[in-house]
Design goal:
31 helices; mainly alpha; 3 domains; Clc chloride channel; 829 residues; CBS-domain; three-stranded mixed sheet; 52% helix
Length: 829
C-alpha cells in the first residue's frame, strides 16, 4: 500500500509520469491539461482514469501572488502573503488542473481579500468607486444574462423540436417552417372532429404515392416515420461523438459533482452548449423515450459558465463561479417546466452543494428572467410556458387519498426498479464491447422504439403531447378517444354540466392502448437513459406516471358511477355530479413516478402545482410524492442522479447520506501499518536537489512539513505545484540558487558555513494552518467536516506529532467499505 496525500495518488511508472508531465520538474508539465481522451463515461464518454492521475484528482493548488487566510477550526489568525520572492505573478497560478477538486476554504479567503481590497480603494477616486459598483452589481448582471440566454435557447429548442417531431409524419406545403398545428391554424376547411386535418398539411404517403388512406398509405407513413427517426438519432449521436462528447446524457449528475467542487474542463464550455442545443432537438424529434427538461439544466449551466468569464469576480474564483451555476440550474428548471419557484427549490434541494442566501435571491431572479423571456417567445402558442399546462375546476374528496397513495406506492416501486435496472444496464455497457459502439447502440434503440411506437397512437405522440392529453380533463370540446363517454339520458338530475358518465368503447380501447404504452415506456426508458445523446428523465418518468394515473382515474370514475351507493362514494358523489377527475390522477401519478426516480420532494410538488395553476391539489401531490419517496427509500436511499454519480466514481460526498459507524480517524488515515512511511519535508534540513528528487520520485500533490524527522512536529503543508513553481522561479530570478542550496521553511534561516550556497526561503508558500484532527477523532465528525467545509485533505496528529493524512478519496473508500461495497469498484472507473 502506498502513502496517501492530497491527491491520494499512488506512484505511477516512470513512463506514465513522463508522459503526463510529472516526471519533469517544469512549469509546462504542471499546467498541461489532461488529454482529450480522458473523457467521462457517465457523461456519455469514456473517462480514462487508469493513468497516474487516478488518485491525483482531488488536489488543486494554492494561489501564488495573493493574500489569503486559512482557517483551522475557529482559528483565523494565520495570514500569509504567498511567494513574496516573485516579482510578478506567473501565468496559470491559482487555477486548478482538470479532474481536481477545488479548495473551498482558500477560494472563499481569496474572495474576502479581493472584497477588502476593493472596499479600501473605493474612496480614493471616482474610477475606483465605479469599479466598486461594477463589482457589486456583476453578480446580478451575470444571472440576468444567464436567464436571458436560457429563456431564448429554451424557446428555440421547443419550437425546433415541435417542428422536427411533426416532420416525421408530414410537411406543411404552404409554409415549410410550420408544424402540423400551426399549418392548420389559418385553414377554413378544418372540422371540429378532425381539427388536425387540412389540405395545407400533407402526409408523406400523400406526397410520395398520392394516397391519404388505405394500407399502402399506412405502410409508406410507417417507413418514413422510421426513416426520419433513425436519421435524427444518427445525426444526434454523430455530432455528440465528433464535436462534444460531454453533450450527451442528462448532465445533472455531472452538474451536481461540479457544484460540489470538482473540475471537469469543457463540460460547461461553448462547444458543449452549441452541440447540446442542436442534438437535444434531434434526440427529442427522433421519438426516443427521453425528455429535454433535464438537459435544459445543463444548457442553462453552460450559459452561466460562459457569462461568468466576462466578470473577473467569477472567472478567477471557482467557488464564486459555482454560485452562478446554482442560479443557472434554477433558470434551467424554470424554463423546462414554467416553474420559477420550483426551479429555485430544485437548485436548493437537488443540485447545489453550497447555497448562501445571496445565491437564493439571484437564483430567484435568474428563474424570473428566464421565464419572462420564454413567455415572450410563446413557443407553444398558448400563452403558457409549457405544453401540458392544465386547470381543473372540481375539488378532490377525502376518499380519493387512498388511490393517490396507491399511485405513490406505484411511483416508488417504479423508481426503485428503474434505478436498479438502469444502473445494471449502464454497468454492463461499460464492462462489455457493446459500450464501444455508441452510434450502433443509439441506432438500435431508435429503430426498436420507432418500429414499436408507430402502431400505437399514444406512443407515436411526442411525449409532452401525450402528457398533455393525459392531464386534460374531458370537456365538451374534447374529441379524444379518452373522452368517448356514453351520455346517460336516464339520469334523474344533472348537477354539473358534464357529470360522471359510463365509459364508451373508445375509452376501453384507449385503456388497452395505454396499458401497452405503459409497458413499452417502462422497458424502453431503462435502455434509453444513458445512451450517447442528450437524454432527460423528467418527461419519460412523468409520462409513465401519467399513464398509470389516468388508468386508475378512469377505474375510480367508473366505480363511482356504477356503485355510487357504496358508503365512501355516497357521502361525496351525488348521482349526476362530476365527482372524479381522471386528469388529476394522471398529474398525481406523474409526480409520484418522478419523485420515485429522483427522490425529490418539496421542489417536485411546487413544480407540479405551478404546472396546474392551482393550490387546491397540493395535499394529494404531497401525499403521493412522500409515499413514493418512502417506498423507494425502502429499496435504496439513492436517487437516479446519486446512483449515476456513484457508478461513474465521481468524488462526491452526499450531504443527505448519514455516517453512523464508530470508527476513528486513526482507522482510516494513511499510511497504514504495512505502508511505507509518510513522505514529508523538513523545515530546514533539505536541499533544493532533495526536494526535486522527492517530486520526481513521487506523484503526490502535497507534502506535510515537519520540524525534523526525530520530532515529527507539524509545521505546515506545501503543495507540489507551489514547490515546483517556486523553485523554478528562484533559479531564474535569484542568483546563487543551485541544487545544493538549503531550503528553509522556518521563519529564521539557520546559520550556515560561509562557503555554503545561498539558501532558498520558501516559508511564503507554506500553509501554516492546515486542517488537523487527532487520531481519536470519530470519523463521523471527520466526514461532517469534509462535507461542510469542502476539504480535500486533513492531517492527523497525536500530541502535535504528525501521524498521517486523510483525503476525500480515503473517506469515500471507507464509506464504501462500511456499506459492504468494493472500494476499488466505485472510484473513478
Amino acid at each position: 500500500m502506498s502513502q496517501r496525500l492530497p491527491g491520494d495518488q499512488r506512484a505511477a511508472p516512470p513512463a506514465q509520469l513522463f508522459h503526463r508531465g510529472y516526471y519533469r520538474n517544469s512549469y509546462n508539465s504542471i499546467t498541461s491539461a489532461s488529454s482529450d481522451e480522458e473523457l467521462l463515461d457517465g457523461a456519455g464518454v469514456i473517462m480514462d482514469f487508469q493513468t497516474s492521475e487516478d488518485d491525483n484528482l482531488l488536489d488543486g493548488d494554492a494561489s501564488i501572488g495573493t493574500h489569503y487566510t486559512m482557517t483551522n477550526g475557529g482559528n483565523i489568525n494565520s495570514s500569509t502573503h504567498l511567494l513574496d520572492l516573485l516579482d510578478e505573478p506567473i501565468p496559470g497560478v491559482g487555477t486548478y488542473d482538470d479532474f481536481h477538486t477545488i479548495d473551498w476554504v482558500r477560494e472563499k479567503c481569496k474572495d474576502r481579500e479581493r472584497h477588502r481590497r476593493i472596499n479600501s480603494k473605493k474612496k480614493e477616486s471616482a474610477w475606483e468607486m465605479t469599479k466598486s459598483l461594477y463589482d457589486a452589481w456583476s453578480g446580478w448582471l451575470v444571472v440576468t444574462l444567464t436567464g436571458l440566454a436560457s429563456g431564448a435557447l429554451a424557446g428555440l429548442i421547443d419550437i425546433a423540436a415541435d417542428w422536427m417531431t411533426d416532420l416525421k409524419e408530414g410537411i406543411c406545403l404552404s409554409a415549410l417552417w410550420f408544424n402540423h398545428e400551426q399549418c392548420c391554424w389559418g385553414s377554413n376547411e378544418t372540422t371540429f372532429e378532425e381539427r388536425d386535418k387540412c389540405p395545407q398539411w400533407k402526409t408523406w404517403a400523400e406526397l410520395i404515392i398520392g394516397q391519404a388512406e388505405g394500407p399502402g398509405s399506412y405502410i409508406m407513413n410507417y417507413i418514413m416515420y422510421i426513416f426520419w427517426a433513425l436519421g435524427f438519432a444518427f445525426l444526434a449521436v454523430s455530432l455528440v461523438k465528433v464535436f462534444a462528447p460531454y453533450a450527451c446524457g442528462s448532465g445533472i449528475p455531472e452538474i451536481k459533482t461540479i457544484l460540489s467542487g470538482f473540475i471537469i474542463r469543457g463540460y460547461l464550455g461553448k462547444w458543449t452548449l452549441m452541440i447540446k442545443t442542436i442534438t437535444l432537438v434531434l434526440a427529442v424529434a427522433s421519438g426516443l423515450s427521453l425528455g429535454k427538461e433535464g438537459p435544459l439544466v445543463h444548457v442553462a449551466c453552460c450559459c452561466g459558465n460562459i457569462f461568468s468569464y466576462l466578470f473577473p469576480k467569477y472567472s478567477t474564483n471557482e467557488a464564486k463561479k459555482r454560485e452562478v451555476l446554482s442560479a443557472a440550474s434554477a433558470a434551467g428548471v424554470s424554463v423546462a417546466f414554467g416553474a420559477p419557484i420550483g426551479g429555485v427549490l430544485f437548485s436548493l434541494e437537488e443540485v447545489s452543494y453550497y447555497f448562501p442566501l445571496k445565491t437564493l435571491w439571484r437564483s430567484f431572479f435568474a428563474a424570473l428572467v428566464a421565464a419572462f423571456v420564454l413567455r415572450s417567445i410563446n413557443p407553444f402558442g398558448n400563452s403558457r410556458l409549457v405544453l401540458f399546462y392544465v386547470e381543473y375546476h372540481t375539488p378532490w374528496y377525502l376518499f380519493e387519498l387512498l388511490p393517490f397513495i396507491l399511485l405513490g406506492v406505484f411511483g416508488g416501486l417504479w423508481g426503485a426498479f428503474f434505478i436498479r435496472a438502469n444502473i445494471a444496464w449502464c454497468r454492463r455497457r461499460k464492462s462489455t464491447k457493446f459500450g464501444k459502439y455508441p452510434v450502433l447502440e443509439v441506432i438500435i434503440v431508435a429503430a426498436i422504439t420507432a418500429v414499436i411506437a408507430f402502431p400505437n397512437p399514444y406512443t407515436r405522440l411526442n411525449t409532452s403531447e401525450l402528457i398533455k392529453e393525459l392531464f386534460t380533463d374531458c370537456g365538451p370540446l374534447e374529441s379524444s378517444s379518452l373522452c368517448d363517454y356514453r351520455n346517460d339520458m336516464n339520469a334523474s338530475k344533472i348537477v354539473d354540466d358534464i357529470p360522471d358518465r359510463p365509459a364508451g368503447t373508445g375509452v376501453y380501447s384507449a385503456i388497452w392502448q395505454l396499458c401497452l404504452a405503459l409497458i413499452f415506456k417502462i422497458i424502453m426508458t431503462v435502455f434509453t437513459f444513458g445512451i450517447k445523446v442528450p437524454s432527460g428523465l423528467f418527461i419519460p418518468s412523468m409520462a409513465i406516471g401519467a399513464i398509470a394515473g389516468r388508468i386508475v382515474g378512469i377505474a375510480v370514475e367508473q366505480l363511482a358511477y356504477y356503485h355510487h351507493d357504496w358508503f365512501f362514494f355516497k357521502e361525496w358523489c351525488e348521482v349526476g355530479a362530476d365527482c372524479i377527475t381522471p386528469g388529476l390522477y394522471a398529474m398525481v401519478g406523474a409526480a409520484a413516478c418522478l419523485g420515485g426516480v429522483t427522490r425529490m420532494t418539496v421542489s417536485l410538488v411546487v413544480i407540479v402545482f405551478e404546472l396546474t395553476g392551482g393550490l387546491e391539489y397540493i395535499v394529494p401531490l404531497m401525499a403521493a410524492v412522500m409515499t413514493s419517496k418512502w417506498v423507494g427509500d425502502a429499496f435504496g436511499r439513492e436517487g437516479i442522479y446519486e446512483a449515476h454519480i456513484r457508478l461513474n466514481g465521481y468524488p462526491f460526498l452526499d450531504a443527505k447520506e448519514e455516517f453512523t459507524h464508530t470508527t476513528l480517524a486513526a482507522d482510516v488515515m494513511r499510511p497504514r501499518r504495512s505502508d511505507p512511511p509518510l513522505a514529508v519535508l523538513t523545515q530546514d534540513n533539505m536541499t533544493v536537489e532533495d526536494i526535486e528528487n522527492l517530486i520526481n520520485e513521487t506523484s503526490y500533490n502535497g507534502f506535510p512539513v515537519i520540524m525534523s524527522k526525530e520530532s515529527q512536529r507539524l509545521v505546515g503543508f506545501a503543495l507540489r505545484r507551489d514547490l515546483t513553481i517556486a523553485i523554478e522561479s528562484a533559479r531564474k530570478k535569484q542568483e546563487g540558487i543551485v541544487g545544493s542550496s538549503r531550503v528553509c521553511f522556518a521563519q529564521h534561516t539557520p546559520s550556515l558555513p560561509a562557503e555554503s550556497p545561498r539558501p532558498l526561503k520558501l516559508r511564503s508558500i507554506l500553509d501554516m494552518s492546515p486542517f488537523t484532527v487527532t487520531d481519536h477523532t470519530p470519523m463521523e465528525i471527520v466526514v461532517d467536516i469534509f462535507r461542510k467545509l469542502g476539504l480535500r485533505q486533513c492531517l492527523v496528529t497525536h500530541n502535535g506529532r504528525l501521524l498521517g493524512i486523510i483525503t476525500k478519496k480515503d473517506i469515500l473508500r471507507h464509506m464504501a467499505q462500511t456499506a459492504n461495497q468494493d472500494p476499488a469498484s466505485i472510484m473513478f472507473n
